[in-house]
C-alpha cells in the first residue's frame, strides 16, 4: 500500500520460516521507527504512528535521531583511523541506511571486518540485500539477540568474521535503552566486554531525559509501550556504568552532538537544543 507521503509499506510475506515471514506489520518495532525518523522507507503504518507520537512529545526527535547517527559515524571513523581497530561487532544495528559501520570503516581500512547482529527479521531481509562492502574486507549480517550474548559470541558466522584474539570495536549504538532493568543490561554488556582482548573499544550511545524537565518519563516512553521493545531512558550515571573498568576516550561521556563534533559536518538545529542521547567510546586496558 502506498501512502500520501509517498511511502509504500513493505510487502506482506508468505508463511514460511524465512526471516521475511516473521515480520509483523501491526506491532511497532524500534528499528523501523528509527528508520522512519531517519527518512528511510522500510517501515509500516504502526511504526510511523509510534514515531509521530514521539515527535509530538519531543519535537526535536527527528533531528536528534540524525545527530545520534552522526555520532556513530564520527566514533567509527575514530576507531578505524586513530585507534587502529580493524574489526567491528555491531549489535542491534537496525535497518541499513547511509554511513553504516562497514561503509565508514572500509573507506579507511579496506580490509576491515564487520559483523552486524540484529534480531529483527526486517533488518535481516534488508541488511543481507544491501550490505555490500569493499571486496578486501568482510561484512556479514547475523541473526541473534543482544539478550543472549553467549550465543552471539559462539555463533559460527560471528566467529568467521571476528577474531577474538585481536582488538574488537564493540558497537552498541542506540540499543541499550531497549533493554529493561529486569533483563540485566549491565551484565549483558559486561559479558561482551569480557570476551574481547586489551586494546578493544566499546562504542555506546543511550537515550536520556537528563536534558529536559518538561517531559515525564511515562509520556516520552509511551509510543514504545506497544512495540516489540519498551524504551528505558537512563541518566548520566546509569549510562556511565556501562563503561566501568575501561578508559574513556576524550571527551568522555557527553551528549552525542558534543562528542568530537566535525566542523564541516552539517549540524541540524534541534528544536529544544538537545539530542537527548549520551555517547562515548572507551578502550579496554
From TrEMBL:
SUPFAM superfamilies: S-adenosyl-L-methionine-dependent methyltransferases. It holds the Pfam family Methyltransf_19. GO terms for biological process: methylation. Keywords: Methyltransferase, Transferase. GO terms for molecular function: methyltransferase activity. The keyword Oxidoreductase does not apply. Residues 1-26 are annotated as: Disordered. This is SAM-dependent methyltransferase.
Amino acid at each position: 500500500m502506498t501512502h500520501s507521503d509517498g511511502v509504500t509499506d513493505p510487502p506482506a510475506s508468505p508463511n514460511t520460516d524465512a526471516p521475511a515471514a516473521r515480520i509483523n506489520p501491526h506491532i511497532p518495532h524500534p528499528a523501523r521507527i528509527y528508520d522512519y525518523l531517519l527518512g528511510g522507507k522500510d517501515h509500516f503504518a504502526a511504526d510511523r504512528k509510534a514515531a509521530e507520537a514521539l515527535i509530538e512529545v519531543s519535537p526535536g526527535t527527528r533531528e536528534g535521531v540524525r545527530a545520534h547517527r552522526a555520532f556513530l559515524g564520527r566514533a567509527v571513523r575514530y576507531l578505524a583511523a586513530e585507534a587502529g581497530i580493524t574489526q567491528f561487532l555491531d549489535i542491534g544495528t537496525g535497518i541499513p541506511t547511509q554511513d553504516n559501520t562497514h561503509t565508514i570503516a572500509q573507506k579507511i581500512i579496506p580490509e576491515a571486518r564487520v559483523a552486524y547482529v540484529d534480531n529483527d527479521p526486517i533488518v535481516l531481509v534488508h541488511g543481507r540485500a544491501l550490505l555490500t562492502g569493499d571486496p578486501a574486507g568482510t561484512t556479514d549480517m547475523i541473526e541473534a539477540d543482544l539478550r543472549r550474548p553467549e550465543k552471539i559470541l559462539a555463533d559460527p558466522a560471528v566467529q568467521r568474521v571476528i577474531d577474538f584474539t585481536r582488538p574488537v570495536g564493540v558497537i552498541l549504538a542506540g540499543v541499550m535503552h531497549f533493554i529493561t532493568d529486569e533483563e540485566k543490561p549491565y551484565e549483558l554488556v559486561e559479558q561482551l566486554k569480557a570476551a574481547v582482548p586489551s586494546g578493544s573499544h566499546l562504542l555506546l550511545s543511550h537515550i536520556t531525559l537528563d536534558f529536559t524537565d518538561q517531559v515525564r518519563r511515562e509520556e516520552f516512553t509511551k509510543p514504545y509501550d506497544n512495540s516489540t521493545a519498551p524504551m528505558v531512558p537512563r541518566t548520566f550515571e546509569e549510562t556511565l556504568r556501562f563503561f566501568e573498568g575501561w578508559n574513556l576516550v576524550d571527551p568522555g561521556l557527553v551528549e552525542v552532538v558534543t562528542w568530537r563534533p566535525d566542523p564541516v559536518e552539517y549540524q541540524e538545529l534541534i528544536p529544544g537544543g538537545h539530542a537527548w542521547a549520551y555517547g562515548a567510546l572507551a578502550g579496554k586496558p
